[in-house]
Model the fold of this input.
Amino acid sequence: MLPDQGGVDVERMVRAFRLGLKDLLPVWEQIMPDTTLTDLYPLPFLAPDEFRFAPRLWARVVGGFAVAHHDRRLPRDHLLRALTPLYLGRVAAFLLETRDRSPAEIEQAVEEIAGAFEAEKPTLIGRWR
Done:
């Protein structure tokens, strides 16, 4: 059992991510590039307390969904439902990553996420038609 995260069931979030990968992979394949999917594949095999979902990977996932929405590949509600397990996985990873950190270190982790999105911006611009 994972440590208490202020009433948040991190283990349940990780399970939701795993179930999403199992059930939504055909949908995710329509949304995200193969390189992003390849980086997602090993995540379900991590133990819940070792679960990691890197900020750079999260930025690529969000970029893929943004492009899919822009290109109207799927209805918006389908995109949002397909994104939910990924979001839960990222939140779980963030909670695990920051569970023993000081407020200043948590702020640094948030800055790392922002930096990942900034680094992903040129790729997103290139994929935006």
